[in-house]
Amino acid sequence: MTALTDPQKESFRLSMLLNDSRYRSITIQIVTLIAFLTLIGWLLNNTAQNLADLGKEPSFRFLTQPSGYDINQRLLEYTSQDTNLRAAFLGLLNTLIVAIMGCIAATVVGVIVGVLRLSNNWIVARLMTFYVEIFRNVPVLLWIVFTMAILIESLPAPNKFRGDTPEASMLLGDSVALTNRGFYVPEPLFSRSLGDLDVLGDASLRFGISLDLVAIVATLLAGVLLAGLFAKRANRIQAATGVRPKTWHWRLGVIVLPTAALLAYLGLHWGHPELRGFNFQGGTYMRNSLIALWLALSLYTAAFIAEIVRAGILAISKGQTEAAAALGLRSRRIMSLVVLPQALRVIVPPLISQYLNLTKNSSLAIAVGYMDITGTLMGITLNQTGRELETVLMTMLIYLTISLVISGAMNIYNNSVKLQER
Questions:
Q1: What is the pLDDT of residues 61-85, one digit of tens each?
Q2: pLDDT for 173-195, tens place per residue?
Q3: Is 173 helix (H, G, I), strand (E, B) or coil?
Q4: Is the pTM of this model over 0.90?
Q5: DSSP 8-state assignment for residue 4
Q6: Rounded distance, CA 324 to CA 118, Å?
Q7: Which residues are registered as beta bridge partners of 116?
Q8: CA 350 → CA 312, 313, 338, 340, distances in Å?
Q9: Alpha-helix runs per DSSP H in 60-209
Q10: What's the rounded Cα separation, in Å, for the pair 315 and 306?
């Protein structure tokens, strides 16, 4: 009788790489990886050879050359004699401004619209439905251009504010001016400023961060964390006794009072815009291109977020709402304490995609003349230097990094609100 061979002790043969199920999948993956890396290597080598034949070897020395153009909306000092690297850096800051402002505004509007779409009031629900349908079914580029046209045509020119009986007037006690060139709002100034900290010594960037801003942000974060501890304590008491203590005044106090005390110590005062010559001077200037881009992206993305919020709320069983109502909770408390905390597990994953879409859609800023990273590095710098490969790769890397940071931060938050299983 022939003894059965133990498959674990069978000697290895090359044919087993394809015939043996234990090795077949690994073999296919290794072969695919080698083929993919070979293809990438061939493409890179072919690209480098073609560029060399054209006399355009890959180089990033153009970043140290003078940019030769102006940037109309900027956070830091900049002149046309600064380098292309600094111009790209300011474009990146402009992109981040739109992305952060847009995500915040779109979230607030989207949550409100999503909740109101489920309202028992027929008129309110239909109005919100009309908003969602009209915004998400029209391309965002058209909304950007349309919003820009409204700002230009409907708002007065700066000269309309001049004279004893001006045709237009400033708002909020002559501190805010809304013009067809942009918005002028008060600028925060500090009489006892802590100064600036130069975090990048490179002359091409010359990036300094305000110590006043660092102190204010740190104080706010500390207050928010302390307010969170008050909320957790209230949750523990409610879980133990069924009665939730009122902590809103304590939570508001630990956020507002320390921040107000710090602002008073720094000597906060406001610099108001004033009409001088042909335009307003002083204050903080926000170009109409920034306002149009921000409003259009926020309202457009909010329509999609509203549907995500509505779907998340509908995913929660009505029994949850009925049980909370039976305990005597009001509708507002039911929504904030019962429905939304559970709906977040459904809302957050698709919400990440909408944040990423808004950030990438900000590249349409060039349509209204807003100088973001696409308009600076991928626009004027590319056309002036002819370094299309380098500029495109840098822009792709920048957007990839921003997207990964947003996705990572939101995934961390998603893990914090997901259902904890025992």
A1: 888 888 888 888 888 788 888 889 8
A2: 778 888 888 898 888 888 888 87
A3: coil
A4: no
A5: P
A6: 18
A7: none
A8: 10, 14, 21, 15
A9: 84-116, 122-136, 140-154
A10: 14
Pairing of strands 279-281, 187-190: unpaired
Sorted by sequence, the CB contacts under 8 Å of residue 264 that are 6+ apart come out as none
Q: What does the mean pLDDT of the chain come to?
A: 86
Give yes or no for a contact between 396 and 389, defined as CB atoms under 8 angstroms apart: no
Write the single-letter amino acid at 201.
Answer: G
* Cα 393–Cα 395–Cα 401 angle in degrees, nearest 5: 100
Q: What is the mean pLDDT of residues 244-261?
A: 88
Helices 84-116/388-417 angle, 10° precision: 40
Q: How many helices (H) and strands (E) does the chain have?
A: 14, 9
3-state secondary structure of 418: coil
Burial class (CB in 10 A: 0-12, 13-18, 19+), 218: exposed
Q: Show the domains of the chain with their CATH numbers.
A: 64-154+288-417 (1.10.3720.10)
Distance, CA of 269 to CA of 248 (rounded, Å)? 29
Of 260, 216, 208, the C-alpha closest to 93 is: 208
Tally Cβ neighbours within 10 Å of residue 387. 21
Q: Any idea what the Cα angle at residue 155 is, between residues 172 and 113, rounded to 5°?
A: 75
Q: Which residues of 305-338 are buried (b: 16+ CB within 10 A; e: fewer)?
A: bbbbbbebbeebeeeebeebeeeebeeeebbeeb
| 336 token code pair | 């904030």
Pairwise CA distance, residues 369 & 375, whole Å: 8
Q: Which residue in this structure is represented by tokens 């293809």?
A: 39
What would the DSSP string read from start to end of 125-154? HHHHHHHHHHHHTS-HHHHHHHHHHHHHHH
Contact 83, 276 (CB under 8 A): no
Q: What is the mean pLDDT of residues 358-383?
A: 91
What would the pLDDT profile of 91-126 be if each residue is shown by its tens digit?
Answer: 999 999 999 999 999 999 999 999 899 888 899 999
Provide the b/e sequence for 254-272 (b: ≥16 CB within 10 Å): bbeeebeebbeebebeeeb
Record the tokens describing residue 302, joined without a space: 């909010």
Question: Which has the higher per-residue pLDDT, 95 or 22?
Answer: 95
